[in-house]
Write a structure and sequence with these properties.
This protein is α/β, with parallel strands linked by helices. It has a single domain, classed as Vaccinia Virus protein VP39 (Rossmann fold, 3-Layer(aba) Sandwich), CATH 3.40.50.150. It contains seven helices and ten strands. Strands 4-3-2-5-6-10-9 form a seven-stranded mixed sheet, with helices on both faces. Strands 1-8-7 form a three-stranded mixed sheet. β5, α5 and β6 form a beta-alpha-beta unit. α1 crosses α4 and α5 packs across α7. The mean pLDDT is 91. Bound molecules: S-adenosylmethionine (SAM). S-adenosylmethionine binds next to α1 and α2.
């Protein structure tokens, strides 16, 4: 038994430190897999928008690679406060992406990263269109997700590890072909794809869940 909450509330109440512990316990590979693919992208002078920034695990890489400006977008204010205070982002924007478009000007980003975010988007086509809007022409988006062959699989995961009181959150697994189609409809093409069979380990059972990372280019 437990109560159902949404991902933004879950991450807001968990806060950045608890989130970091969870990433260690589950051996979360999202940011490191994405970092490998970011090696092929020139970040010097780039404006990067990290959506679902959480506690900002990619920001050291952005800074080392010469990014000029990092904008962090997230629904959870506690994660954004941490990012601003700890120099993980130059600017932060609070937004629930299941409800609203990003409050950013069109064609502002050279690179958009979304690590760990698509698992919380029930209907990602609107957000995908917004990624294409915010990217500059020829800009790149990097996303990751837990792939499924079915169109969209919904699952409730226990957030007990965060609160110790039996909260549940809906997560969504997406089919790679569906996401590629949403991006194609938004004027973007798949540049590369990699799947890690051990992208994360389920908290209670320790079973591995694959994680696909996709790079997409705005045409
Ligand atoms: C799994 S964490 C990922 C953090 C970091 N990017 C990483 O890879 O470790 C997911 C992040 O997405 C944010 N998020 C989830 N659903 C969201 C929504 N509907 N709108 C905005 N942010 C959301 C959460 O608040 C959380 O910070």
């Amino acid at each position: 038994m437990g109560y159902l909450t949404d991902a933004v509330d879950y991450y807001d109440r968990a806060g950045p430190k608890t989130y970091e512990t969870i990433t260690q316990l589950t051996a979360w590979q999202g940011p490191s897999d994405m970092a490998m693919m970011l090696r092929d992208i020139n970040l010097r002078g780039a404006t990067v928008v990290d959506v679902g920034i959480g506690n900002g695990p990619l920001s050291d890489l952005f800074r080392r690679s010469g990014a000029a400006h990092i904008i962090g977008v997230d629904g959870a204010q506690s994660q954004l406060d941490y990012c601003l205070k700890n120099n993980k982002a130059d600017e932060v924007v609070q937004c629930d992406l299941n409800e609203f478009d990003m409050p950013l000007e069109s064609e502002t980003a050279d690179v958009i990263t979304c690590s760990g975010l698509f698992s919380y988007l029930a209907e990602p086509s609107f957000f995908v269109a917004d990624i294409a809007r915010v990217l500059k022409p020829e800009g790149t988006a990097l996303i990751n997700f837990h792939p499924t062959r079915n169109h969209c699989v919904q699952e409730r995961i226990s957030a007990e590890s965060f609160f110790g009181q039996g909260a549940f959150v809906n997560v969504y697994h997406h089919a790679p072909e569906d996401l590629a189609m949403h991006f194609a409809n938004a004027g973007m093409r798949v540049a590369s794809v990699k799947t890690n069979p051990h992208g994360i380990y389920r908290f209670m059972t320790g079973t591995p869940l694959p994680l696909t990372t996709m790079a997409l280019r705005k045409i």
